[in-house]
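Page header: ASSEMBLY MODEL / four components / 656 residues total.
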Amino acid sequence: MITISDIAKLAGVAKSTVSRYLNGGSVGEATRKKIERVIEETGYSPNKFAQSLKAKKTNMIGTIVPRLDSFAASQTLIGIDEQLRALNYQLIISNSSQSLEREIENIYTLANQKVAGIILLATEITESHIEALRKVQIPIMLVGQQHEEYHSLIHNDYEASYELGKYVLENGHRRIAYLGVTERDVAVGVNRKKGFQKAVAQQSGCDVRYFETSFKIEDSINIVPEIMKDFHPSIFVCATDNIALGALKAAHIMGLNVPKDLSITGFGGYDITKITFPGITSAKFYYKEAGNVAAKNLVQLVNGEELKKVSLSRYKIIERESVDKMMD
Amino acid sequence: MITISDIAKLAGVAKSTVSRYLNGGSVGEATRKKIERVIEETGYSPNKFAQSLKAKKTNMIGTIVPRLDSFAASQTLIGIDEQLRALNYQLIISNSSQSLEREIENIYTLANQKVAGIILLATEITESHIEALRKVQIPIMLVGQQHEEYHSLIHNDYEASYELGKYVLENGHRRIAYLGVTERDVAVGVNRKKGFQKAVAQQSGCDVRYFETSFKIEDSINIVPEIMKDFHPSIFVCATDNIALGALKAAHIMGLNVPKDLSITGFGGYDITKITFPGITSAKFYYKEAGNVAAKNLVQLVNGEELKKVSLSRYKIIERESVDKMMD
DNA sequence: CTGAAAGCGCTTACAG
DNA sequence: CTGAAAGCGCTTACAG
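Prediction written out in full:
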């Protein structure tokens, strides 16, 4: 373990001079050369803890994710990592395993580690969240959900869903099963549903029924056949790609041809939806890009710069083969 | 920011006493009570940096992953996280984006952050890797690949592949395309191939051809039709599930019925392989469990305990519907 | 441009 | 059981 004192001694200068050299202060040419050489030779690198202890801040950014094994989370993380690296920050990923409690815990733990800021990939924002965020007093970026008190980057769930709804309707579907999730998740449960409802409201003669399932593929596999029996829709409009994946599997199990016998749409644009057979039409979000933006925004916050309260990320309807064109 | 001095003052004792209280040293009953109360009231929690600066070690464990968006990596990470949390260590995830260079960089960065140990989800182990690992002098666990100098946890690629090969042969397949990857990846490129070859060697009348592709689904989608044209195997034995996923997509594009016209096997047991149509027969590895073990092992190393050089993780052949039973 | 000194928040011998 | 002091490796005014 080689320290700043060693460098100072070897270079024949004071510690403070080495420190100044390290931090871009004014150092004479000759001194600079000497220090440079010694550092080069020794492979010295400053002790982060000592630095942080003085500076009372770090270059670490914490990101709390609800789960590590989801396409959306992974891609967002990749985007955050990419950007943070470019900005010279170190990313710390903290997994909450879909436990709201652990999410809160992680906020405190990260604060305790003196991260410069926190990115929260949010699902639900409860009172305890707000309480924790208020207490820790650290710059925060919310991703995926919004809250009036904090800065956020959200996906354009409402509009994307509206547009996807129009697409479904334009293709002649009238008997529709909408397969959503809990409304406690405002982005996915509420906004996607509302966007879709807006599209439906503009079209007469629709028979739309709303159902609720979980985020798990398995649950979707199970509920779809039941709905088919009772309601017999021509299409399932699913609130996430995982739900759509389950619907597709269910269709195959029932021996139904997709899209002829049953159409399906997803939401999210997970990579896997282009690999399935048939490919699934979906509203794609650019998660990686969103991660980029979230990271950039947070660093602005950390630097005390101005930032608008909410940023919107891009989306695009990806048309594939899972929706029957009933008009033809 | 409340410090140990504040607590000491409020409790009317010396800093050293508070420190002793915190670290389980001997403290009188009355003193203990007082300190306890003050800490409770203030919500004090010690500054990690100051602690680490003194102790010269931390409770952080670094994990370097080649990518964040792979089933294997995510699951392993979840397992590591789970175990580390239980053992009171903090996980730092470091993404190398499939760049060997960045992997090396990350080793140094983590060392610089004074992590107590490093888990490396390895793909290739080059001389630079070894050099870096030697330099940083930190306990290391390799996952997925092995090296005589370091402790590792490996998947049983060889045996799993042997068994899967036997299964394929038992089902009557003789004209077989083996779709592997670069041999620089010893685990996936070499061991899986060798295991399969062993099975083939025990069966006469086989026409097996070996092909190489990348880890990308797209490349597999492209190469499979070419192979079909030239060779026309009854089955593709794929070195990873992603490759199998590509083969399945290619089959659908070619209008082939799987498994009747073309059979497919995968490797890894990714969740998605049970959702596809048909479900893909695959050699499943228990990644999460492997992560658990790797974490536990590393902590043993950190604590200076004995540990056998290499641990093997479990596997299981998962039979689904993608292999035609030609014997019937 | 350069150096001596103080201090960041802890822990650890060492006395008592 | 308890406290005063030194020290971990840095940075930051302050002099010169």
